[in-house]
Write a structure and sequence with these properties.
- The model has no long low-confidence stretch (mean pLDDT 87).
- The protein is globular, with a radius of gyration of 20 Å.
- It is 68% helix and 0% strand.
- The two termini are 32 Å apart.
- It is built from ten helices and no strands.
C-alpha cells in the first residue's frame, strides 16, 4: 500500500508542477514543455525524477537546463503523502489532508517563483476546503467560515499597513518602485487559510507565520550582509510563511490541542 501512496504522491507532484508552469503565464494548460523554448517534453521526461535518473536534464531542442524544482516537489509530495498515510490511513482524513497539502505546495511554488498568489488558485481552493471541513465534525462549517472571515480581516489590515509603509519608504528613498510585501493575493490567501484552520486556529497560524517570517528575514539579512549584497527593505514572498503557519496548525492540530484550547 505504501508503494501505491508513493505513486499517488508522485502524480500529485506532477499536477503541481504542471499547474505551476502554466497558471502564472495565463496561456491555458499545456502538456509538460520546456519553459525556455516551449518545446514539448518527451513522455519519459514528464516527471522530474525520471528526467534526472535518465540524465536528461537539458532540453533537446534549446539545451536549457531543467530546473530542479520538479524533482524537489516530487520528493516533497511523495514524502508528505507517505507521512500522511502512516499518520492516519482512514480515507476521510488522508484524502482531505493530501488535497490541502497539494494546494499548499502549488501556492508556495508559484509565490516563490513569480511573487504571485493567484486568485484562480486561492478562491476555488477556499471553496473546496470549506466543503471538506464542513464534512468534518471536529472542524465544521461555522468554525471554518469564521476563520475565513478572521483571516480576511487580519491579513487585509496587514495589506493596508504594508501599502502605507511601502509608500513611505519609497518616498524617503525617492524610489519609484512601489512593490510591497503584501499584495491583495495575500489577503485572499489569508482568507483561504482561515477557512482551512478555522477559528481560533487562524490566530495561531498567523503568529507562527510572523515568527517564521521574522526569523527567515533575520538570517537572510545576515547572509546578504556577509556577501555585501544587502539592500534595506527588500520585499520577500510572504505566502510561504503564511502556508507554514497554517500547515503547523492544520497538520499538528492534535498536538497543539494538548497544550491549549484549540477547538
Amino acid at each position: 500500500m505504501i508503494v501505491a501512496i508513493a505513486i499517488l504522491g508522485l502524480f500529485s507532484a506532477a499536477l503541481v508542477n504542471l499547474l505551476a508552469d502554466n497558471l502564472p503565464r495565463r496561456q491555458g494548460i499545456r502538456p509538460p514543455h520546456c519553459l525556455a523554448c516551449g518545446a514539448p517534453r518527451a513522455a519519459g521526461a514528464w516527471l522530474g525524477s525520471l528526467a534526472f535518473l535518465r540524465m536528461r536534464r537539458r532540453c533537446p531542442y534549446c539545451g536549457t537546463p531543467r530546473s530542479c524544482r520538479d524533482f524537489l516537489v516530487e520528493v516533497a509530495l511523495v514524502s508528505i503523502a507517505i507521512w500522511l498515510y502512516v499518520r492516519d490511513p482512514s480515507a476521510s482524513v488522508f484524502w482531505s489532508a493530501l488535497i490541502i497539502a497539494v494546494i499548499f505546495a502549488l501556492i508556495v511554488v508559484i509565490d516563490i517563483e513569480h511573487r504571485l498568489i493567484l486568485h484562480v488558485v486561492s478562491i476555488p481552493s477556499g471553496l473546496i476546503i470549506l466543503f471538506i471541513n464542513s464534512l468534518d465534525p471536529s472542524r465544521g462549517f461555522l468554525k471554518s467560515l469564521v476563520g475565513g472571515g478572521a483571516g480576511l480581516l487580519f491579513v487585509f489590515c496587514m495589506f493596508l499597513f504594508g501599502g502605507l509603509f511601502g509608500r513611505y519608504i519609497a518616498r524617503v528613498r525617492e524610489d519609484a518602485n512601489d512593490e510591497v510585501a503584501f499584495g491583495f493575493g495575500d489577503v485572499m490567501l489569508g482568507t483561504m487559510l482561515g477557512l482551512t484552520v478555522g477559528w481560533p486556529g487562524i490566530v495561531l497560524a498567523l503568529i507562527f507565520a510572523i515568527f517564521a517570517g521574522g526569523i527567515f528575514s533575520l538570517f537572510y539579512m545576515l547572509f546578504m550582509t556577509l556577501r555585501d549584497r544587502y539592500s534595506a527593505f527588500q520585499p520577500i514572498p510572504y505566502g510561504p510563511f503564511l502556508i507554514f503557519g497554517a500547515s503547523v496548525v492544520y497538520f499538528f492540530r492534535e498536538s497543539i490541542i494538548r497544550f491549549g484550547p484549540l477547538g
